[in-house]
Amino acid sequence: MAEKKITLSVIKADVGGFVGHSTIHPDLAKTAIKELEKAVSKKLLIDFHVTNCGDDVELIMTHWRGKDSSDIHELAWNTFKEATKVAQKLKLYGAGQDLLVDAFSGNVKGMGPGVAELEFLERKSEPVIVFMADKCSPGAWNLPLFRMFADPFCTPGLIIDKSMHDGFIFEVVDIHQNKVIKLSCPEQMYDLLMFIGSAENFMIYNVYRKTDGEVAAAASTQKLSLIAGQYVGKDDPVCVVRSQSGFPAVGEILEPFSFPHLVAGWTRGSHYGPLMPCTFKDATPSRLDGPPRVIAAGFQIAEGKLIGPRDMFADSIWDYTRNKTAEAAEYMRRHGPFEPHRLPLKEMEYTTMPQIMKKYESKFLSMDGSAKDKNKGKKITVTTETD
Ligand code: 13P
Ligand code: 13P
Ligand code: MG
Ligand code: MG
Question: Total domain count for the chain?
Answer without folding.
Answer: 1
